[in-house]
Fold:
Amino acid sequence: MANILRQRTSAPSEGNAYRGSVLQAGRVSRRVCNFGILIVAFLLSTFDIAGAGEAKSVLILYSNESFLPANISLGNALVDQMRGATPTRVELFSEFLDLIRFPGDAHQSRTADMLRQKYSNLQIDLLVTVGPQALSFLAGQRDVLFPDVPVVFTGVREDNVTWRELKSATGILMRLDPVPTLDLAMQLQPTTRRVVVVTGASGFDRSWDALARERFGSYEDRLEFTYFSGLPMQTLLENVRGLQSDTVVIFLSGFTDGAGEYFLSADAASLVAGASAVPVYGPYDTYIGTGIVGGHMSTFDQVGRETGRLGLRILAGEAPKNIAPYLPGNGVAVVDCRQLTRWGLSEDRLPPHSDLRFRQPSPWEEYRNLVLSAVVVLALQSVLLVGLLIERRNRVRAELEADETRRELTHASRLATVGELTASIAHEINQPLGAILNNADAAEMLLDSSPDTLDEVRQILEDIRQDDLRASEVIGRLRALLRNREIEFQKIDPHDLIDDVLRLIQREASRREVAIHTTLASGTPMVTGDKVHLQQVLLNLLLNGMEAMSELEHAKKLIVQTRIVGSEMEIAVQDSGPGISKDICARLFDPFFTTKKEGMGLGLSIARTLVEAHGGRIWAEGESGNGVTFRFTVPLARQSSSEASQSAGELTRELTW
Amino acid sequence: MTLTIPIVHVVDDDASFRKSLVRLLRAASYEVCEYASAAEFLLARVRCAPGCVVLDIHMPGLSGLDLQEGLSDFDDAHPIIFLTGHGDIPMSVRAMKAGAVDFLTKPVQRDSLLAAVRSAIARDTEKRMTRESQTLLRARFEKLTERELAVFTLVVAGKLNKNIASELGISERTVKSHRANVMAKLQVTSIAGLIASAVQLNFPISET
Structure:
C-alpha cells in the first residue's frame, strides 16, 4: 500500500492537474462560477457543432491485478493522457485479468465469457492491453469478443511474436534489457568485481534470467557473474546477506520464488534489498523506494503516457496498420538518493539527466522557507528597531528645535515689544545725547568768549558725565532685554525688577497718559528666576494694559501689585480698561490669539511659556466693563528665617506720571 | 518804536537737557527763559518781547504740538522751533503746516539750532516791527478829514489834480492844499511815499 501511494505521488499526472483546477474553480466566487457555466455551455455547444462525435469507449485489459504498482503507475498515466488531451469524451473501462496468478485455459475462457457478457451491449472503440499476457489472451479471444476493434498494446517485448500476428493492432514496445542497469551499477561502483543476478521462478522471471545471461556475456571477462535464479526466498536472502563488498546485486524480477510462493516483484525486490550486504540494482521504476539503489529504465509513467497518446491517434482515425509498434523512447537512470547515501555512492558519478528520487533536501533546501521567513522577520524587526531609533532621535531633535523656536519667538516678541517702545527709547537716549552735545557746545562758546567761565565749564563737564551715564544706562537696559538667550536662574529682588521695567516704560506710559501705581509686598522677598525673562513678562503685561486702555476717555490707570502667597510671589497688573469676557480670558494665552488689530498673538503665549518655565502660573481675571487683572506667580527664593519672619504688612508706593 | 531784547523760551520736561540748552543759548548771548512744561509756558503769558520758542514734542500733559495749536489763536505768538528726541514725518508735517519755523531732532547741531533761533527771532522782530509801524500809520490815517480821505483815495488811484478837482467839484488849488495836508498828516514827502502807505494799510487802489 505504501508503494501505491508513493507511486501515485511520484507520478505527477495531467489528470491530477485537471482535478486540481476543478477544485480551485469551485473555490471562486459565485459570480465567476456563473460566468464559468456560460463559458462551459458555449464550449459544449462548440464541440457539438465541431462534430466531435459521441463518447468513445476504451477498454483496457491489464494482465495483472489492479494493485500491481506497475499497473497503477502505467494505468494512471494512460488514463490521464487519454482523458486530458482531447475534447472527445473518452469512456474508459478497465479489466484486470490476473492472468499470471491464474494461468490456464479455464481462467481464460471464464474471463472471456465475463467480458463478452459485460460488454455485449457496449460499442468498444479501442482495446488497450497492458502486458504480454493480456495481449496473448486477446489474440486468442479476439474474434469472439471484439472482432474488429483496433488494439493498442503496451508492455510487450519487442521479441514477442503475438503482436506480429495480430491484425489491426499497434502498440508500445518494452525493451527488456539488463545491461544499462548493470552499466549504471558499474558507473556508481567502478571497483565491482562480482555481479549477482537475481530472478524468480515464474515464466516471466525466467525470461529475464535468460536475457540477462545472454546480454551479460560480454562482461564476463571483467566481472564474475552469479545467477540466483528461482531460489526460495529464504535461501535467496541468506545468500545475499553473505555477499562480499566487491559485489553488486542486479534484481531483475521475482513474481514467484523457488518455493512456489507468489510475490509482487517490487516486494521481492524490497526483501532482497533489505537483506543484501551490498547495493542492489533493478530495471523497474516500481522498485525505486524498495531499498534498491536504482536502475536504467523506461518508467511506467512514461510508457503509460506514450500508450495513451497512441490510443488517441487510433481513436482520431488513424489505422493501426499504418503505425508500426515502437519503443517509448530511451530510458533514464533512476536512483534512490537515500540509497546512494546509505552505500556512500557519489551523485557525481551518475549519467547526465538522471532521475533522482527521494532526494533529501539539504538543510538549506529543507528549511529555506523557514530560514527566509526568519530572516525576513529579523530584517523587519531590525528595520522597525532602526525606525524607532530614528524616530526617537527625530523626536529629541524636534524637541530641541521646539526649544530653539520658542527661544527665537521669545526673542522676536521682545524685539516686537521693543519696537513698540521705539519712540520712547529713542527719546530717552537722544535726550542725554542732546544734553551732552549742548553742554559741550556751550562750554566751547564760553571758553571762546571769556576766560572767567571756568566754574561754569566745570559744572558743564560734570553734567556731560551724568548724561553720558544716563545714555549708556538706557542702552544697557535695552541690550539686556534684547539678548537672545536661555533661561538663567538667579536670586532676584522682584521690586528692583519692577523698578527697572517701570523706568523703561515710564516714557511710554507718559506718552499714553497712563498713571502707574505700585502696591508692593513689604520686606525684601527674593524670587528665583531669570531677570530678563521676568522683565519681559511684566513689560508685556504693562504694554497690554496700556493698549487695552488706549480708547479710554477717563483716567488711564495701571496698578502693579505684589504679594506673597505661600511659597510664591504673585505679581498682578491691573488695568482700568473696558475688560473682557471670561471665555476670552481663557483663550488669551493661546498662541496667535489676539484681540489687537495688529497684534501677533504671541506676547501672552510667550509670557506663559516663560512663567511656566519658572515653575509659576499666569492667568487673567476680568469681566466686561471692569478692566482686566493679569496675575503670575514666581517661586520665592529660599530665605533665612529672619527674613521670613518679617511682617507681612504692605507698603504702598505710588508713582504717577 | 520800542526796542526790546529778544528772548528764547525753552520748553522741555527733561531738566538735564533743558539746562544744557539754556546754557548753550546763553553762551550765544540770548536771553533765555525756561519752562518745564507747556502749561508753565502758557501761565507765564509772555507775549510782548520778540523771540521764539524752542519746544519739545513729547511731554507729559500738553504736548508740544498741543501748545502750538493753542498759541495759534494769538496774533502775537512767537515762532516755534520744535526739538524732539524722536520725531516722525507725520509729526513734522503737522508741525510745519501749523507754522513752525523748524523741526529739529535731538541731539541737535549747534549751528542748526542757532541758525533756526536767529532766523526765528529775526522773523518775529520784523513781524513785530511791521505790526508796530502799521499801528502807527493807522493812527495817522485816522486823523484825515473826510475831504482829505477822498483826495488821498483819488491821488493813490493816479488821478491828476484837475481831474480830482472836477470830480469833487472843488478848485484845483483846494485839491493841492488837501494833498499837502494829507502828506503832512501821514508824514510822507512824496507821492511814492503816499502810495507806499496806502499799500501798507491795504488801502484799495483803483485803476480808474
